[in-house]
């Protein structure tokens, strides 16, 4: 399903259909639809205040929905990792696990196996006695991920798990996320890293609570109405902007000094920038 097709609650496994959330006069989400298929990672991207955390809160049952429908499994089968990692700093790694296991009523016999498997995969099996506050940022996020995985969730909701995490831990986190999806979980991942979103099965692009695009990274690139091309040199007359528009066509400038740029290849980042520019222009008109 793409964002352009009308979805009905019956069409989706888990997710939200046509959801609107308001905080007083602020429309945090407007008619947003997202389905979360089991076995897939769905990334949500967007700038500050785009509505990402509100969407996760609505799916987790923590934010009241004004209109629309949210379809989720029993709360005991929903794992949530908040942006703060979800780790208690004054509890040890093992105590964090015990605490969450109790909250989810996980039986002792299955807890031992899950604890060993998850902490070992996250490389945390040797630090069971260390306080949460004494873990490195990357270790804390990996523990937060393990806590969210503890109930063996059907749906896993992750709020920017890799923000502030070093590149090695980021790769490890991604392996854990990919394994969770391969094990059958429907994964929702909020991220501000578009290279990360590029690896997801599908991406929802939000801007001020509105859907700008939804589909595979390739779908998002091809959803732009005109051609999108990139070049390594800045044309005359274009100042600081990285993207500009002529009619329905977009051109992306990839500065030469960015070593990883490969002019000619249009990626998700280019497409998201173009979508945001198009919306900004539409708002001005
Ligand atoms: N509890 C609240 N009360 C009032 N307004 C809120 C509340 N929570 C969020 N908002 C507003 O709703 C909009 C969406 O916020 P949200 O936190 O969902 O965005 P976000 O995409 O997660 O942003 P960021 O990446 O900056 O965290 C913003 O305008 C925000 O100010």
Topology readout:
Elements: E1 15-23, E2 26-35, E3 41-45, H1 52-60, E4 67-71, E5 78-81, H2 93-103, H3 108-121, H4 137-149, E6 155-159, H5 167-182, E7 186-190, H6 194-197, E8 202-207, E9 210-215, H7 217-222, E10 228-231, E11 243-246, E12 249-253, H8 268-284
Parallel strand pairs: 3-7, 3-8, 5-6, 6-7, 10-12
Antiparallel strand pairs: 1-2, 1-4, 8-9, 11-12
Helix pairs in contact: 4-5
Adenosine-5'-triphosphate (ATP) binds at residues 23, 26, 28, 46, 48-54.
Can you describe what's shown?
This protein is of the alpha/beta class and 285 residues long. It has two domains: 9-217, 3-Layer(aba) Sandwich (Rossmann fold); 224-284, no CATH class. 32% of the residues lie in helices and 24% in strands. The protein has helices at residues 52-60, 93-103, 108-121, 137-149, 167-182, 194-197, 217-222, 268-284; strands at residues 15-23, 26-35, 41-45, 67-71, 78-81, 155-159, 186-190, 202-207, 210-215, 228-231, 243-246, 249-253. It has a six-stranded mixed beta sheet, sandwiched between helices. It has a three-stranded antiparallel beta sheet with strand order 2-1-4, covered by helices on one side. The chain has a three-stranded mixed beta sheet with strand order 10-12-11, with helices on one face. Helix 4 (137-149) runs parallel beside helix 5. The longest helix is centred in the last third of the chain and has 17 residues, at 268-284. Residues 1-5 and 257-263 have low confidence and may be disordered. The structure holds adenosine-5'-triphosphate (ATP). Adenosine-5'-triphosphate (ATP) binds next to strand 2 and helix 1. Keywords: ATP-binding, Nucleotide-binding.
